[in-house]
Amino acid sequence: MDIDPSKILIRYNVQKEKAQTPEDMAAEMYPKAEPARTICAAIFEGEEDDVIEGLEKAIEGGADAIKLIDDVLMVGMKIVTDMYDQGVIFLPNVMMSADAMLEGIEFCKEQGGSAPKPKGKVVCHVAEGDVHDIGKTIVAALLRAAGFEVVDLGRDCPVDEVIAAVKKESPMMLTGTALMTTTMYAFKEVNDRLLESGIKIPFQCGGGAVNQDFVTTYELGVYGEEAADAPKMANAILAGKGLAQLKETFHKH
Amino acid sequence: MVKRYTSMAYKAADDMIFGKSIYPVKAELGLEVGAGYVTAEVNYAPRPEAGVSKEKLVSEYRRLTTDIMARAVQVGFPAVSLETEHVEQMTNNPTWGGEIAHVQKTILEEYHEEYGIKTALRHTPGDVRENRDLLALIGDKYDVLMESFEAVADGGADFLSIETMGGKEILDYAILRNDIPGLVYSIGCLGSIDMTMIWSDIRKIADKKGRIAAGDTDCAQANTAMFIAGGLLDKNLAHTIAIIARAISAPRTLAGYEAGAQGPGKDCGYENTIVKSITGCPIAQEGKTSTCAHSDVMGNLVMQCCDLWSNESVEYHGEFGGTSVQCWSETLNYDAAMLNVATETGNAKLLRDMLVLSDKYRDPQGYVLAYDNAYKVGQAIVKNGDDLYLRAKNAAISCVDILNAADSKKLIMSKFEKNALADAKAALDAMTDESETFMSDCLEKYKAEVAVFRPDANYKF
């Protein structure tokens, strides 16, 4: 027994697929000048060695190593994240590009002897009692790829440590992920302890069992349905949006 | 030394059907799984606030167990099975899990005695073998886990299960980088090594306590891939990569049976049809009636060969139709009734094939897991059944071959999926046929690239 499946299902993703390949689309977005073009292409391909080779050539040619971070590496990474946001490329492409870009940044810092100023600082953690951290890993990588400094507190992070880190680092945003319904309750405690300390930063929460209904039960909580919401939320904060506006933008249900 | 599977339990794919397995298992209160009928397996999670104390947790499980059984007899269902997946407190404090198992089993016994309803209880301790920063598969946490199994077996749990995490430290790295050798290493090799160890010990406990060492699932790895892949419009992981991870998970879950598991396999092991084709042991599955827990893209198809039919998990709370466990158990039971009517009227294979065709072409995952193709993956696994690496690689190659041979007018894949598939094939073609070479190369590679990889401590290298 078999069937013509066209009557019972539709692959909307195939229908919507663009004729142009991601590689062709990216090539149109690369800077025209060399070696920036080659370096951006290497970031898109996730080729760490080629990124370093391109940077070496640029520095040999007289480029400022630290300026290359903003002028070339971040430009290349933005092409990747923009294409991911548009649904043209997949998350592993972003992760591999981020690996290549971060290696490039480290190389530039070594060569230049200093570090550039990040766009802002974000503290990331996994709820106390919860060891499922792949979501947090993705969030942290996407934030770094977007130019933010990430203080990664890891998984199963006690509330005390979260509060201490926020006090020490003064981040623009805190993120929390959890897979279990029983562990996500730690987010409420984090919220209460931050408020007790007079700290009112956006607290982006997401992950397996976390839903918008739960996150809206505490004042600082902003629900992030997708990991990709994290850099968008951080950029929105940079653009001056407050808690209420963030909730309006990111709460979808 | 465990004996590996080198042949198939079923002579042909068409012999596989829901409700029947070659080696049924029987629980204490009359329920026989895989003996000719499908039974609902109800899953649940306590409300978050119930986790604050043992007393509150025990009370939560007492209420929800009573709710499920009350609804089952109200609507006249002949059988129901329950699964308690531990929250971490219940495993880390073995007496908690043991007491909850006892409370639940006592309720099941009361209903069985009063109404004659066939029933069983599965307990699934959490895999707590890790600390804040690292997997800790062997050592103190392992001992706690074994104590937990002893306690729930003493408490009355019929089926002992777990969702183990061996290899996950590499999987989490590899899956985000389309790293096919990494998937084979993490799931097929490391996962199987851990499964062989832990299931040998679970079986010893089951035998000592008169319980059934049921089965595992590659939830920690293949389901991670499936959930990252998400729906058809999501761009987080190609579905072709997700199904390759799933195919590789079958020999890993098989390792549990080789070490002593007898079924029913765990519900969220979407690899279970492949595993059943090799072992002939009964399986639990979840799909269209587990949408309370997560979405998949093969909700009907996955019923094809189930022996228990599960809802994966639902938080205990009120709904318009009763408590959530009553609503979802009722739905599961109606599904089971439909399947059993098909069996009783001689239409089981027809219904199986209708269920399969409703999802087979929805995406590459359902296509490969359709029982005819799942059987082919099983054959590829047993071809080199004695070699953990080769059989995992075979499963991946078989999966790729099945997709490449599919009718492209029916199984329509996106360019992304096709490109990812082509890249995966190239990666597989480049892999060695020598297990020792592969294992030593991966050991060096991932020791260098994955900071949390502790091969000596976790896998006794």
Can you describe this structure in just a few lines?
With 253 residues, chain A is an alpha/beta fold. Chain A contains twelve helices and five strands.
Describe this structure in words.
The complex is a heterodimer of chains A (253) and B (461). Chain A is of the alpha/beta class and 253 residues long. Chain A has two domains: 20-112, Methyltransferase, Methionine Synthase (B12-binding Domains), Chain A, domain 1 (Orthogonal Bundle); 121-250, Rossmann fold (3-Layer(aba) Sandwich), CATH 3.40.50. Chain A has helices spanning 12-16, 22-29, 36-45, 48-60, 65-85, 91-112, 134-145, 159-169, 186-196, 212-215, 229-238, 243-250; strands at residues 121-126, 149-152, 173-177, 203-206, 221-223. Chain A is globular and about 55 Å long. The mean pLDDT of chain A is 93. With 461 residues, chain B is an alpha/beta fold. Helix content of chain B is 53%, strand content 10%. In chain B, helix 3 packs parallel to helix 4 (140-155) and helix 6 (180-209) crosses helix 14. The longest helix of chain B has 30 residues, at 180-209. Classes of the chains: A alpha/beta (253), B alpha/beta (461). Chain A binds chain B through residues 1-5, 8-9, 11-14, 16-17, 21, 84, 87-92, 95-96, 99, 129, 131, 133-134, 137-138, 141, 154-156, 180-182, 184-185, 208, and chain B through 45-51, 87-89, 130, 132-133, 172, 175-178, 224, 227-228, 232-233, 235-238, 241, 315, 350, 353, 357-358, 360-363, 410, 412-416, 420.
Structural class of the secondary structure composition of chain A?
Answer: alpha/beta
The topology string of helices and strands of chain B comes to EEEHEHHEHEHHEHHHEEEEHHHHHHHH
CATH topology of chain B: TIM Barrel
| Range of helix content of chain A | 40-55%
Mean pLDDT of chain A: 93
- Please identify, by name, the CATH architecture of the largest domain in chain A: 3-Layer(aba) Sandwich
Q: What does the largest sheet of chain A look like?
A: 5 strands, parallel
The CATH homologous superfamily name of the largest domain in chain A equals Cobalamin-binding domain
CATH domain topology of the largest domain in chain A: Rossmann fold
* CATH class (first level) name of chain B: Alpha Beta
The figure for the number of domains of chain A is 2
Helical proportion of chain B, percent range: 40-55%
Q: Span from first to last CA of chain B?
A: 16 Å
What structural category arises from helix and sheet content of chain B? alpha/beta
Shape-level CATH architecture of chain B: Alpha-Beta Barrel
Number of strands of chain A: 5
Number of domains of chain B: 1
Q: Please report the number of helical segments of chain A.
A: 12
Contiguous uncertain segments of 5+ residues of chain B: none
Q: What's the story with the biggest beta sheet of chain B?
A: 7 strands, parallel
